[in-house]
Amino acid sequence: MSEGMGKVTCNLTISADGYSAGLNQSEERPFGDDGGDGWGDKLHAWYVEGAEENKAEIDAMMSATKAFIMGRNMFGPVRGEWDRQWNGWWGENPPYHAPVFVLTHYARDPQPMDGGTTFHFVTDGIESALAQARAAAGDGEIAIQGGATTINQYLAAGLIDELRLHIAPLTLGAGTRLFEGVPPLKLEQVTARATSMVTHVTYRVLR
Question: What are the coiled-coil residue ranges (predicted)?
Fold first, then answer.
């Protein structure tokens, strides 16, 4: 992290065996097969059913972050070639309330939403997305929101300062896995807290 720049972090919920999504992801089930009936019921239950117990971590996800980066699949699946009218998974008022830079192969005009979120679509790679996010964030933090494939690209390029993982007590066995294709990392544990539905662990990525 350079002087005057905010940290580049990630927040990611993973299973105990390291998967951020199961097999068979679809528009109806964006996190695939995780043993639940819909929107990542089992993997992300801590965020919904356990919101009170995990309030500190939920609040911390957004409080210091001034810009976000996500992969196109986290914004929403491709419908045909690319539905330029669809606003993604997030409804009319996404939770980000800040600029979000979406990595994609398909150009699209910025999409402003209620609450201060604007999705910007970046077609020229992860470093371009990070440069644009830095310009938008100033000295605030930038969060690589996911999914795991996008986070893995930034980890492999040495561009993430801090990993904030939320480990759910279940295994998926297959799917999209964190650290896939990433060279060995040296991590320093910063914090760890267990609640009844998840364990929160923060690691600093050492250079």
Answer: none
